[in-house]
From TrEMBL:
GO BP term, pick one: cobalamin biosynthetic process
Family stated for the protein in its record: Belongs to the precorrin methyltransferase family.
Tetrapyrrole methylase domain mapped to chain residues: 4-216
Pathways involved: Cofactor biosynthesis; adenosylcobalamin biosynthesis
Gene3D superfamilies, A to Z: Cobalt-precorrin-4 Transmethylase, Domain 1 (3.40.1010.10), Methyltransferase, Cobalt-precorrin-4 Transmethylase, Domain 2 (3.30.950.10)
Keywords: Cobalamin biosynthesis, Methyltransferase, S-adenosyl-L-methionine, Transferase
Superkingdom of this protein's organism: Bacteria
Highest classification ranks of the organism: Bacteria, Bacillati, Bacillota, Negativicutes, Veillonellales
Name of the protein in question: Precorrin-2 C(20)-methyltransferase
GO molecular function: precorrin-2 C20-methyltransferase activity
Cross-referenced Pfam families: TP_methylase (PF00590)
Gene that this sequence comes from: cobI
EC number: 2.1.1.130
Length: 237
């Protein structure tokens, strides 16, 4: 009998936001697959291990941990090759009848590299399941103690590197800009032009060591990859 893949969201960084279901399948799976970008720091792995410390029945040292390399690039050919390689590494264990937990920060359904690996294995006929996690923008809104949207307000979500960003900022409703690293100055200028800077805020490294909160985006001068910008059309909530 072949193993099953569980694509598990570990939330934005705060170990206390790891769901009960994520803990359940972390215990069940003998193999853990952890993503790694262009750095040596395995953020998802460190968050997971911190969250599972002291939980009965979880023994990380007894798990087989495999690293999936997801390069930080927009080159589709390079990314596709990385996803194929990751899926192949997991398939070895599934073929041997071992369940695999594939972890990702945030939620697998929101701009996550893990979903491409999940899709390949699902389409290859393996049994799969997605375990949702708390999205970073929900945690960021909670950290700032403000709603994402109210009543009939629409919510627009997009990554900060989109070429049509200015057009998206003109759309009605509130906005979430994810992963805006290297784009902060341009985004602030575009929000100013759209008359929306006063309603913009940001959380950097939400739930992680070094978290920084900016109730007013105008006060932020730099940011990292792990940042989320929230924009309220009618001003801050």
């Amino acid at each position: 009998m072949k193993g099953k893949l569980f694509c598990i969201g570990v939330g934005p960084g705060d170990p206390e936001l790891l769901t009960l279901k994520a803990v359940k399948y972390s215990k069940r799976c003998p193999v853990w697959a952890v993503p790694q970008g262009n750095t040596e720091k395995l953020t998802a792995k460190s968050i997971l291990l911190d969250a599972l410390q002291g939980i009965d029945g979880v023994e990380p040292e007894k798990k087989e941990i495999i690293t999936l390399h997801f390069p930080m690039t927009r080159d589709r050919a390079v990314l596709a090759a990385a996803h194929r390689k990751g899926a192949a590494a997991i398939a070895v264990h599934l073929e041997a009848g071992r369940d695999v937990a594939l972890f990702t920060l945030g939620c697998p359904t929101v701009y996550a590299s893990s979903i491409y690996v999940h899709r390949r294995l699902r389409d290859d006929g393996y049994e799969t399941e997605i375990v949702p996690g708390v999205p970073s923008f929900c945690a960021a809104a909670a950290a700032l103690q403000q709603p994402l949207c109210e009543k009939e307000e629409p919510l627009v979500i997009f990554p900060g590197g989109r070429a049509d960003r200015q057009a998206l900022l003109q759309m009605p409703g509130n906005t979430v800009i994810m992963k805006p690293a290297g784009q902060l100055a341009a985004i602030k200028a575009e929000l100013t032009a759209a008359g929306k800077l006063a309603g913009a805020s940001m959380v950097e490294r939400c739930g992680l060591p070094g978290e920084r909160r900016y109730p007013s985006l105008a006060d932020a001068e730099e940011n990292t990859y792990f940042s989320v910008i929230l924009v309220h059309e009618e001003g801050r909530g």
